[in-house]
């Protein structure tokens, strides 16, 4: 996402990059003796012998573990360790998200109605909040759990990808905005939502 990178955020709006938090956590964990295996597929887990088989970019591997942590959803993790009690518990949970993302493409460069006098203002993030307080924000988030509620306005993050890409000297023949927004129904999948409720 160029709109994060252009200002030193790198895939996020925090200056110098919120991604550095995860890098520092990785350093701490490595110093504590934690081994990381990325871009890998778990093939089998034996919780009695504490052995895990997985395929990685270097081939198939077998490791003995003291503690095993999966960076995945709870159902997949429960299935991998074949924990029937946990599988039954999480199978009833709603694992659908409440966020949406919309990509908009334009032939001409976007002109902001209330632009500021700064050379990079067209490439900066924009945030639109539909609520005034933290309590209202929480209420909007929880409201989509109710039956028959397709959408409750919470906030939108607007990523000015096209303008930021041009600042990074990428040759584009269009302008692009990505809009991340909340809150969508937790009761329906995206294709089943009424678009009239979101407008």
Structure described in brief:
The protein has 199 residues and is α+β, with helices and mostly antiparallel strands. It contains seven helices and seven strands.
Number of strands: 7
The percent range for helix content is: 25-40%
- Globular, elongated, flat, extended or rod-shaped: what is the shape? extended
Q: Cα-atom Rg, whole angstroms? A: 22 Å
Distance between the termini: 25 Å
Largest beta sheet: strand ordering: 4-7-6-5
Largest sheet: 4 strands, antiparallel
Number of domains: 2
Secondary-structure element pattern, one letter each: HHEEEHHEEHEHEH
Which runs of at least 5 residues are low in confidence (pLDDT < 50)? none
Q: Estimate the strand proportion.
A: 15-25%
What does the model show?
The chain is α+β, with helices and mostly antiparallel strands and 199 residues long. The chain folds into 2 domains: 35-91, no CATH class; 97-198, no CATH class. The chain contains 7 helices and 7 strands; from the N terminus they run ααβββααββαβαβα. The protein has helices spanning 2-5, 19-31, 74-80, 84-91, 134-143, 161-167, 195-198; strands at 41-46, 51-56, 59-64, 99-106, 126-129, 151-159, 175-184. The strands form 2 sheets. Strands 4-7-6-5 form a 4-stranded antiparallel beta sheet. The protein has a 3-stranded antiparallel beta sheet with strand order 1-2-3, with no helix packed on it. β1 and β2 form a beta hairpin. α3 (74-80) runs antiparallel to α4. The two termini are 25 Å apart. The model has no long low-confidence stretch (mean pLDDT 81).
């Amino acid at each position: 996402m160029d709109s994060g990178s252009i200002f030193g955020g790198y895939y996020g709006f925090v200056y110098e990059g919120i991604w550095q938090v995860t890098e520092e956590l990785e350093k701490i964990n490595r110093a504590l003796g934690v081994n990381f295996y990325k871009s890998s597929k778990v093939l089998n887990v034996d919780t009695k012998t504490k052995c895990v088989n997985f395929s990685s970019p270097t081939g198939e591997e077998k490791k003995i573990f003291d503690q095993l942590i999966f960076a995945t959803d709870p159902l997949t993790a429960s299935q991998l360790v074949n924990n029937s009690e946990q599988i039954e518990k999480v199978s009833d949970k709603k694992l659908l998200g409440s966020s949406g993302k919309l990509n908009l493409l334009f032939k001409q460069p976007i002109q902001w109605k209330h632009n500021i006098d700064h050379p990079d203002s067209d490439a900066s993030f924009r945030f639109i909040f539909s609520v005034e307080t933290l309590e209202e924000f929480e209420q909007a988030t929880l409201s989509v759990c109710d039956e028959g509620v397709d959408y409750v306005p919470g906030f939108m993050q607007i990523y000015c990808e096209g303008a930021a890409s041009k600042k990074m000297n990428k040759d584009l023949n269009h302008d692009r905005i990505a809009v991340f927004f909340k809150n969508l129904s937790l009761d329906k999948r995206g294709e089943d939502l009424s678009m009239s409720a979101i407008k």
